[in-house]
Specification:
261 residues, Rossmann fold, six-stranded parallel sheet, two-stranded parallel ribbon, 44% helix
Amino acid sequence: MLFGIYNRQAPELDAVRAELGAPPVRRIERAMIRAPLMLYMTAEPFEYPRSDWPPSVRMVGPGIWDPPAKLPAWLEEVKRPLVLVTCSTEFQNDGKLVRIALEALAREGVEVVVTTAGVDPSSFTPSPSARIERFVPHRPVLERAACVVCHGGMGITQKALASGVPVCVVPFGRDQFDVARRVVVADAGTRLPASRLRPDRLQAAVQEAMSKKAGAERIAAAFAAAGGPKAAADALEGLLRSQDSVSSRGSGSRHARNRSG
Protein backbone atom coordinates (compact mmCIF):
# COMPACT_ATOMS: atom_id res chain seq x y z
CA MET A 1 0.00 0.00 0.00
CA LEU A 2 1.14 3.48 -0.80
CA PHE A 3 1.24 4.93 2.71
CA GLY A 4 3.27 7.92 1.53
CA ILE A 5 0.27 9.08 -0.51
CA TYR A 6 -2.35 8.18 2.07
CA ASN A 7 -0.43 9.81 4.93
CA ARG A 8 -1.13 13.19 3.32
CA GLN A 9 -4.72 12.68 4.44
CA ALA A 10 -3.74 11.78 8.02
CA PRO A 11 -4.37 15.32 9.40
CA GLU A 12 -7.93 15.24 8.05
CA LEU A 13 -8.47 11.77 9.51
CA ASP A 14 -7.08 12.88 12.87
CA ALA A 15 -9.42 15.89 12.90
CA VAL A 16 -12.39 13.52 12.59
CA ARG A 17 -10.93 11.20 15.23
CA ALA A 18 -10.49 14.16 17.59
CA GLU A 19 -14.18 15.04 17.27
CA LEU A 20 -15.03 11.46 18.25
CA GLY A 21 -12.63 11.45 21.18
CA ALA A 22 -10.21 9.01 19.52
CA PRO A 23 -6.42 9.45 19.73
CA PRO A 24 -4.56 10.66 16.62
CA VAL A 25 -2.83 8.19 14.32
CA ARG A 26 -0.61 10.69 12.44
CA ARG A 27 0.45 7.90 10.09
CA ILE A 28 -2.06 5.66 8.32
CA GLU A 29 -0.04 2.46 8.79
CA ARG A 30 -0.27 2.92 12.55
CA ALA A 31 -4.04 2.90 12.29
CA MET A 32 -3.82 -0.37 10.38
CA ILE A 33 -1.73 -1.97 13.13
CA ARG A 34 -3.78 -0.48 15.95
CA ALA A 35 -7.21 -1.47 14.62
CA PRO A 36 -8.58 -4.79 15.90
CA LEU A 37 -9.69 -5.59 12.34
CA MET A 38 -8.73 -4.19 8.95
CA LEU A 39 -10.66 -5.40 5.91
CA TYR A 40 -8.36 -5.13 2.91
CA MET A 41 -10.23 -5.39 -0.38
CA THR A 42 -7.82 -7.41 -2.47
CA ALA A 43 -6.01 -10.76 -2.21
CA GLU A 44 -2.79 -12.49 -3.19
CA PRO A 45 -1.34 -12.90 -5.78
CA PHE A 46 -2.48 -9.39 -6.76
CA GLU A 47 -1.27 -8.26 -3.35
CA TYR A 48 2.37 -9.05 -2.69
CA PRO A 49 3.08 -11.79 -0.12
CA ARG A 50 3.30 -10.16 3.32
CA SER A 51 4.99 -11.60 6.41
CA ASP A 52 5.02 -8.47 8.59
CA TRP A 53 1.30 -7.74 8.82
CA PRO A 54 -0.61 -8.42 12.05
CA PRO A 55 -3.35 -11.09 12.04
CA SER A 56 -5.94 -8.31 12.26
CA VAL A 57 -5.48 -7.65 8.51
CA ARG A 58 -7.99 -9.71 6.52
CA MET A 59 -7.86 -9.78 2.73
CA VAL A 60 -11.40 -10.38 1.49
CA GLY A 61 -11.07 -9.67 -2.23
CA PRO A 62 -12.24 -6.62 -4.20
CA GLY A 63 -15.58 -4.85 -4.22
CA ILE A 64 -16.89 -5.50 -7.73
CA TRP A 65 -20.53 -4.50 -7.40
CA ASP A 66 -22.19 -2.91 -10.42
CA PRO A 67 -25.38 -0.85 -10.24
CA PRO A 68 -28.38 -2.57 -11.84
CA ALA A 69 -28.41 -1.79 -15.53
CA LYS A 70 -30.08 -3.10 -18.66
CA LEU A 71 -27.80 -5.05 -21.00
CA PRO A 72 -27.03 -2.83 -24.00
CA ALA A 73 -28.70 -4.30 -27.09
CA TRP A 74 -25.64 -3.59 -29.24
CA LEU A 75 -23.50 -5.78 -27.02
CA GLU A 76 -25.40 -8.87 -28.15
CA GLU A 77 -24.29 -8.15 -31.71
CA VAL A 78 -20.57 -8.25 -30.87
CA LYS A 79 -19.06 -11.43 -32.32
CA ARG A 80 -15.35 -10.64 -32.52
CA PRO A 81 -12.96 -10.46 -29.53
CA LEU A 82 -13.73 -7.35 -27.51
CA VAL A 83 -11.29 -4.89 -25.96
CA LEU A 84 -12.59 -2.53 -23.28
CA VAL A 85 -10.78 0.82 -23.03
CA THR A 86 -11.53 2.97 -19.99
CA CYS A 87 -10.64 6.40 -18.62
CA SER A 88 -10.61 7.40 -14.98
CA THR A 89 -13.86 8.57 -13.35
CA GLU A 90 -11.72 11.25 -11.68
CA PHE A 91 -10.55 13.61 -14.40
CA GLN A 92 -6.82 13.30 -15.03
CA ASN A 93 -6.66 14.26 -18.70
CA ASP A 94 -6.18 10.68 -19.86
CA GLY A 95 -8.10 11.13 -23.11
CA LYS A 96 -4.79 10.51 -24.86
CA LEU A 97 -5.24 6.84 -23.98
CA VAL A 98 -8.51 6.68 -25.90
CA ARG A 99 -7.13 8.46 -28.98
CA ILE A 100 -4.09 6.20 -29.16
CA ALA A 101 -6.14 3.06 -28.47
CA LEU A 102 -8.61 3.84 -31.25
CA GLU A 103 -5.72 4.16 -33.70
CA ALA A 104 -3.75 1.19 -32.34
CA LEU A 105 -6.69 -1.25 -32.40
CA ALA A 106 -8.45 -0.10 -35.58
CA ARG A 107 -6.98 -2.94 -37.65
CA GLU A 108 -6.56 -5.60 -34.97
CA GLY A 109 -9.68 -7.57 -35.78
CA VAL A 110 -11.31 -6.70 -32.46
CA GLU A 111 -14.35 -4.76 -31.32
CA VAL A 112 -13.44 -1.79 -29.14
CA VAL A 113 -15.72 -0.46 -26.42
CA VAL A 114 -14.60 2.82 -24.86
CA THR A 115 -15.96 4.30 -21.64
CA THR A 116 -14.69 7.85 -21.26
CA ALA A 117 -16.03 8.58 -17.71
CA GLY A 118 -14.31 11.85 -16.76
CA VAL A 119 -13.57 12.79 -20.38
CA ASP A 120 -16.12 14.18 -22.86
CA PRO A 121 -16.96 11.33 -25.29
CA SER A 122 -17.79 13.79 -28.08
CA SER A 123 -14.10 14.72 -28.31
CA PHE A 124 -13.32 11.38 -30.00
CA THR A 125 -14.16 9.98 -33.42
CA PRO A 126 -14.82 6.23 -33.29
CA SER A 127 -13.48 3.88 -35.91
CA PRO A 128 -15.98 1.51 -37.61
CA SER A 129 -15.10 -1.22 -35.09
CA ALA A 130 -15.37 1.00 -31.98
CA ARG A 131 -18.15 2.25 -29.77
CA ILE A 132 -17.66 5.23 -27.45
CA GLU A 133 -19.84 5.90 -24.40
CA ARG A 134 -19.33 7.92 -21.25
CA PHE A 135 -20.60 5.07 -19.07
CA VAL A 136 -21.49 1.45 -19.79
CA PRO A 137 -22.08 -1.28 -17.18
CA HIS A 138 -18.73 -3.05 -17.11
CA ARG A 139 -19.83 -6.48 -15.93
CA PRO A 140 -21.56 -7.62 -19.16
CA VAL A 141 -18.76 -6.11 -21.24
CA LEU A 142 -16.12 -7.95 -19.22
CA GLU A 143 -17.97 -11.23 -19.79
CA ARG A 144 -17.12 -10.82 -23.48
CA ALA A 145 -13.75 -9.07 -23.19
CA ALA A 146 -10.38 -10.45 -24.26
CA CYS A 147 -8.47 -7.54 -22.70
CA VAL A 148 -8.97 -4.31 -20.76
CA VAL A 149 -6.89 -1.24 -21.54
CA CYS A 150 -7.03 1.19 -18.62
CA HIS A 151 -5.26 3.82 -16.56
CA GLY A 152 -4.65 1.45 -13.66
CA GLY A 153 -7.35 2.53 -11.24
CA MET A 154 -7.74 -0.14 -8.56
CA GLY A 155 -11.46 -0.42 -9.30
CA ILE A 156 -11.44 -1.27 -13.01
CA THR A 157 -8.20 -3.25 -12.73
CA GLN A 158 -9.49 -5.56 -10.03
CA LYS A 159 -12.91 -5.81 -11.67
CA ALA A 160 -11.27 -6.98 -14.90
CA LEU A 161 -9.03 -9.47 -13.13
CA ALA A 162 -11.96 -10.76 -11.07
CA SER A 163 -13.56 -11.67 -14.40
CA GLY A 164 -10.38 -13.41 -15.54
CA VAL A 165 -9.63 -10.71 -18.13
CA PRO A 166 -5.98 -9.66 -18.61
CA VAL A 167 -5.14 -5.96 -18.39
CA CYS A 168 -2.91 -3.54 -20.26
CA VAL A 169 -2.25 -0.70 -17.82
CA VAL A 170 -1.18 2.78 -18.91
CA PRO A 171 -0.65 4.62 -15.59
CA PHE A 172 -0.98 8.39 -15.43
CA GLY A 173 -0.56 9.17 -11.73
CA ARG A 174 -1.40 8.50 -8.08
CA ASP A 175 -1.40 4.79 -7.15
CA GLN A 176 -1.71 3.70 -10.78
CA PHE A 177 2.02 3.03 -11.14
CA ASP A 178 1.90 0.56 -8.27
CA VAL A 179 -1.24 -1.08 -9.65
CA ALA A 180 0.49 -1.50 -13.02
CA ARG A 181 3.47 -3.15 -11.36
CA ARG A 182 1.21 -5.58 -9.50
CA VAL A 183 -0.41 -6.60 -12.78
CA VAL A 184 3.00 -7.34 -14.30
CA VAL A 185 4.38 -9.15 -11.23
CA ALA A 186 1.26 -11.34 -11.12
CA ASP A 187 1.73 -12.11 -14.86
CA ALA A 188 -1.84 -10.97 -15.51
CA GLY A 189 -1.13 -8.28 -18.09
CA THR A 190 1.25 -5.60 -19.27
CA ARG A 191 2.34 -2.07 -18.41
CA LEU A 192 3.04 0.82 -20.77
CA PRO A 193 4.01 4.19 -19.24
CA ALA A 194 1.89 7.11 -20.46
CA SER A 195 5.09 8.89 -21.47
CA ARG A 196 5.80 6.10 -23.98
CA LEU A 197 2.24 5.82 -25.28
CA ARG A 198 2.25 5.40 -29.05
CA PRO A 199 -0.04 3.33 -31.34
CA ASP A 200 2.55 0.69 -32.21
CA ARG A 201 3.66 0.28 -28.60
CA LEU A 202 0.10 0.04 -27.32
CA GLN A 203 -0.78 -2.45 -30.03
CA ALA A 204 2.14 -4.66 -28.95
CA ALA A 205 1.30 -4.26 -25.26
CA VAL A 206 -2.33 -5.28 -25.86
CA GLN A 207 -1.29 -8.31 -27.89
CA GLU A 208 1.07 -9.40 -25.11
CA ALA A 209 -1.57 -8.77 -22.45
CA MET A 210 -4.01 -11.06 -24.26
CA SER A 211 -1.49 -13.88 -23.83
CA LYS A 212 -1.70 -13.46 -20.03
CA LYS A 213 -5.16 -15.02 -19.69
CA ALA A 214 -3.90 -17.75 -17.35
CA GLY A 215 -2.50 -15.19 -14.92
CA ALA A 216 -5.74 -13.23 -14.89
CA GLU A 217 -7.74 -16.40 -14.26
CA ARG A 218 -5.41 -17.30 -11.39
CA ILE A 219 -6.16 -13.96 -9.75
CA ALA A 220 -9.90 -14.39 -10.41
CA ALA A 221 -9.83 -17.71 -8.56
CA ALA A 222 -7.92 -16.15 -5.65
CA PHE A 223 -10.38 -13.25 -5.43
CA ALA A 224 -13.31 -15.66 -5.33
CA ALA A 225 -11.62 -17.79 -2.66
CA ALA A 226 -11.04 -14.69 -0.49
CA GLY A 227 -14.76 -14.66 0.19
CA GLY A 228 -15.85 -11.15 -0.78
CA PRO A 229 -18.70 -9.45 1.11
CA LYS A 230 -19.60 -12.61 3.06
CA ALA A 231 -16.06 -12.97 4.37
CA ALA A 232 -16.03 -9.29 5.35
CA ALA A 233 -19.37 -9.59 7.17
CA ASP A 234 -18.25 -12.78 8.94
CA ALA A 235 -15.04 -11.09 10.09
CA LEU A 236 -16.97 -8.10 11.47
CA GLU A 237 -19.48 -10.34 13.26
CA GLY A 238 -16.63 -12.40 14.70
CA LEU A 239 -14.99 -9.25 16.05
CA LEU A 240 -18.24 -8.07 17.64
CA ARG A 241 -18.83 -11.46 19.24
CA SER A 242 -15.32 -11.54 20.69
CA GLN A 243 -15.68 -8.02 22.08
CA ASP A 244 -19.07 -8.87 23.59
CA SER A 245 -17.50 -11.95 25.19
CA VAL A 246 -14.67 -9.92 26.68
CA SER A 247 -17.14 -7.29 27.92
CA SER A 248 -19.33 -9.98 29.50
CA ARG A 249 -16.39 -11.60 31.28
CA GLY A 250 -15.26 -8.22 32.57
CA SER A 251 -18.74 -7.42 33.84
CA GLY A 252 -19.00 -10.82 35.54
CA SER A 253 -15.67 -10.31 37.30
CA ARG A 254 -16.78 -6.91 38.61
CA HIS A 255 -20.02 -8.35 39.95
CA ALA A 256 -18.12 -11.17 41.67
CA ARG A 257 -15.75 -8.70 43.32
CA ASN A 258 -18.67 -6.55 44.46
CA ARG A 259 -20.39 -9.56 46.05
CA SER A 260 -17.22 -10.67 47.80
CA GLY A 261 -16.68 -7.15 49.12
